[in-house]
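User: Okay, second chain of the day. Same drill as before: sequence in, structure tokens out.
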Amino acid sequence: MNNLIPLLLPLLFVTVYGSGFVGAKLGLPHSEPFTFLALRFALAGAILLLAALLLKKTKPVHLGWMFLSGLLLQGVFSVGVFYALYLGMTPAVSALIIALQPLLVAVLSAFFLAETVPPKRWFGLFLGLLGVAIVVIDGLATNSITILNLSWALLGLLGLTFGQLLQKRYCADMDLLSGGAFQTLSAALVMGLYGYLFESMSVNWNNEFIIALLWMSIGVSIGALSLLYLMIRQQSSTQVASVFYGVPVAAALVAWPLFGQVPSAVDWLGFAIVALAVVIANHSPAQNSPAQKQTTQSIDVGNNPRQTKKFCFDNAETNCLDKH
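Assistant: Same drill. Structure tokens below.
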């Protein structure tokens, strides 16, 4: 069962996270992007904060890095994609741009995390890019691309990439409730400020928008992002990044029954290639950074035959947890 977890987590993540494109499609006609995101993050953050207080979770540490990684991973990525769609970019084009993220992470992880990407994983990364290209190429409409919406989509790509790398390096041991509350509420404040400065902040409160808001807050911001943080904690950055190839595929499958967007035979071929690529990229043995190679050690305490295992997130003793 433990061997299946590295495959089950990505599958569950892409299913929930990919549905966020459907949530955006439902909600954006009734609210401007900054306003929608401010409401989404505020609701998700309030739920996480309440859960953290009730369960008496420890207060977040490394607040500066936590704020920056959360703002990039949640705020910048989301607003980049939302504004690209809001300004007329098709979901197919947006998905293709975001699908460049795994390759970008693979290149940058050598500098940020001292990770080595094995050839088998490079093969999986390029195979996944091919699969996504097959899925979206039929719907690629160049007349939907402008300098403005392309700039927003690229901003979202950079936010997702650098946010994941910072989260992996500085906040991998973050508590999902207290840390998630801090990151999400911080993003809500920033989105609310920009909404106040640059948008009318008007919302058409109807059933479609309420459903979209609830799903984006609870399903995506809490559920999917918690799964993402678990993967970041347990896997290498390139393994986690490869999972994002499946997000546009999942979005297409979720949109099929809701909006009648039936995948073609070519789409199904692309889906199969993406699924194979994610399995290949996640099956490759992880290459840990030098700081991670000594993350687990065992020591004997006196004459006590019981062994104490110490799990460390970096070389600092303060970031170690004892497990008896």
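Residues 286-324 have pLDDT under 50 and may be disordered.

User: Thanks, on to the next one.
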